[in-house]
Amino acid sequence: MNLSHIEHIGIAVNNIEEAKTFFEDVLGLKCYAVEEVKDQKVKTAFFKIGQTKIELLEATSDESPVAKFIAKKGQGIHHIAFATDDVNKSLKEAEEKGIKLIDKQARKGAENLNIGFLHPKSTFGVLTELCGK
Amino acid sequence: MNLSHIEHIGIAVNNIEEAKTFFEDVLGLKCYAVEEVKDQKVKTAFFKIGQTKIELLEATSDESPVAKFIAKKGQGIHHIAFATDDVNKSLKEAEEKGIKLIDKQARKGAENLNIGFLHPKSTFGVLTELCGK
Description:
- Two copies of one chain form a homodimer.
- Chain A is α+β, with helices and mostly antiparallel strands.
- Chain A has three helices and eight strands.
- In chain A, a hairpin with a 4-residue loop joins strand 2 and strand 3 (42-49).
- Chain A is globular.
- An eight-stranded mixed β-sheet of chain A has the order 2-3-4-1-5-8-7-6.
- Chains A and B meet through strand 1, helix 1 and strand 5 of A and strand 1, helix 1 and strand 5 of B.
């Protein structure tokens, strides 16, 4: 699999406005975008640091995977997204190597990127996203 | 705080040798170092992707913070480390802004880097490390 860098790190929070203060006022990062991803029932806020984005995730419904994550594990780091030039090819390659997929095909995520998730049961508990244009 | 990039992402696993197969055989990363950090009662394995390292953490004792993390939350993403040019200065700055610290002073971590942790109770559940030379 040809992965170039960590595209983003997803962080599940109860309230983006409250959590933003830590990333802005303490760490000194700048929030450059806030976006709702209706498909995943989340509101997102983005910060950039080096090659990588920090993506805060706030559930917009109790049915959101982010709400379920927080109910089970509390607020915190939710997933890692690796940058790939071809999400569908990378998903297929992972499946051929015995990895269980959440997404069999790439779908659209925040910032209009193609995304696909591997199942954490196959990845030692790390919810792993593959992400590309 | 003057942070340049994500220095590494720490991932708590039960067994480094088993988890390595996912990062090497599926994601195509290369493990370039394995090191024991006795102070923290962990064995570590490092992979590089872009500016960032993936640090697998395996507890070498039931008293290890990594063993306690896994007992509570299961295997998965454990912490994010941000690169700073001055860990002590950054810790002090965080404390002055009301952040609870795990480390009041920088100490030596893996790869002989200076490290210091912020307490996840102050950082929306994100165990945050500041890391530098």
